[in-house]
Amino acid sequence: MSLLLESIRINQGKPDNLSAHEERISRSQLALEGIRQLPPLEKIFKSTPPPNTRLLKARIVYNSDMYKIDYHEYSRAIIKSLQVCQEKSIYYPHKFANRRRLNNLKKTFPKYTEALIVIGNRITDTTFTNLAFWNGKKWLSPMYPLLPGTRRASLINQGLIELHDIQLSQLMDFEKVRLFNAMMPWDEAIEISISQVKNHY
Predict the structure, then answer these.
(1) Helix (H) or strand (E) segment spanning residue 22
(2) Would you place residue 53 in the very low, low, confident or very high pLDDT band (cuts 50, 70, 90)?
(3) Which CATH number does the domain housing residue 27 bear?
(4) CA 87 to CA 15: how far, in whole Å?
(5) Final residue before a domain boundary, out of 73, 107, 125
(6) CATH number at residue 188
């Protein structure tokens, strides 16, 4: 089985949003192997406890035969603009450790510019975050992301975002967009004006 990856926010030694991570791990291993093999996350963290200082990223790489966990000091990405990337066949239904194709999308972009991935005129994700768009009344998140994120799942459950089939042609109906993921809670999301989304025509 291909190596899978789980990135988990650790704040003052406490793992964040574990139930959503557990659900995704189970869903991925059941889809790819027919059975979950990875031990429960609480057991993993108990056997390899994180330091109890600073904001850390726990990086768990695993497949049906093994897992490896590492802790890294978290450095928040700086994103100032988005560049539309029209893709036809990119496929990332599970959080695979091999992210080469995603990373290649932005190799030629200017500094601090991230890819806004569009498939069949549908807005999906960036290369490392889910998205939510503000229309002046509520936050709408793409119904068909590349990868349904753990933070996205919790925000849906809390009623902070609603799902919507967002077409590229509708982009200018919005005022701003937020980028969020497991390491960036809603109140720490990167917020970008729609005017800073390039090549959207």
Answers:
(1) helix 18-33
(2) confident
(3) 3.30.470.10
(4) 34
(5) 73
(6) 3.20.10.10
Residue with tokens 């967009």: 177
The range of the structural domain enclosing residue 151 comes to: 81-198
Query: Could you tell me if 16 and 44 lie in one domain?
Result: yes
> 24 pLDDT exceeds 80?
yes
61-109 pLDDT, tens digit per residue, is: 999 999 999 999 999 999 999 999 999 888 899 999 999 999 999 999 9
Proportion of the chain above pLDDT 70, given as a percent: 99
Could you give phi then psi for residue 3, rounded to 5 degrees? -65, 135
* Secondary structure of residue 158 in the 3-state scheme: helix
Q: In what order do the strands lie in the sheet with 113-119?
A: 122-123, 113-119, 81-87, 197-198
Among the candidates 73, 103, 118, a domain finishes at 73
Tell me the HSE value of 26 on the side-chain side, using a 13 A CA sphere: 8
Average predicted confidence (pLDDT) for the chain: 95
- Say whether pTM exceeds 0.85: yes
User: Are 171 and 199 within 8 A, CB to CB?
Assistant: no
Q: Domain count of the chain?
A: 2
C-beta atoms surrounding 172 within 10 Å: 12
Strands 162-164, 122-123: parallel, antiparallel or unpaired by DSSP? unpaired
